[in-house]
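Fold tokens
===========
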Amino acid sequence: MPGKKPDYVIAWIEVKGKRFEILVRPDPAFKFKEGENVDIEDILWTDTIYRDSRKGLKASPAEVKSAFGTEDPRRIAEKILREGQIQLTEEQRRKLIEAKKKQIITYIARNAIDPKTGKPIPETRIETAFEQLRIGVDPFKDAETQAVEAVRRIATLMPIKLAKAVVRAEIPAQYSGRIYRELQRLGHLLKTDWRHDGTLVAELEIPAGSQVEVVSRIQGLTKGQARVDVKVVK
């Protein structure tokens, strides 16, 4: 159909001063670059390695071998997708940036606290700080790395730091057996002590920003009968 957009985008990389391109299906390519397990066969629109795909200029076998040490299009595609760039439409870039921004803000909210009060910081407050500081987001860089850098910048605007907390919970005997597995899911179990009466005393390391969520979960599972203390440790 005239005017129909192609169902592929260009992924490219520069090696030894030369540009190499492949044509890929956008959705699986983006998922692969985000770290998802996607078969290269489902990503490649064609297995041709180009110097300039728009002009139909293919890379010679000698150029490919020199640049990548192989002529296997699957291995070459993996390198280009991991280390190179993927062409994006404005709409695709906007959606990827918004999704990554949400991941970063969620990570900060779960892992950061106000060091003055030891309390978690709401996502809405973190999002406002992003807007005020005009913090940029790289759609292909991992969320944790960007979150650490974002916290450094937000700290110039308000008290904030990444921290861990230790939750000490005394679980009555009637709930201790059922809650043990849940505690393992909620954080890193540092210590457990089973008392003679069946009471479980557990220490759990968690992201400091998730302390309200974790305490609420423990109390919900024990109908409010657990004794829970929280201490921010760093």
Observations:
- The longest helix spans residues 90-111.
- The domain at 90-162 is CATH 1.10.10.900 (Arc Repressor Mutant, subunit A).
- The chain has a mean pLDDT of 90.
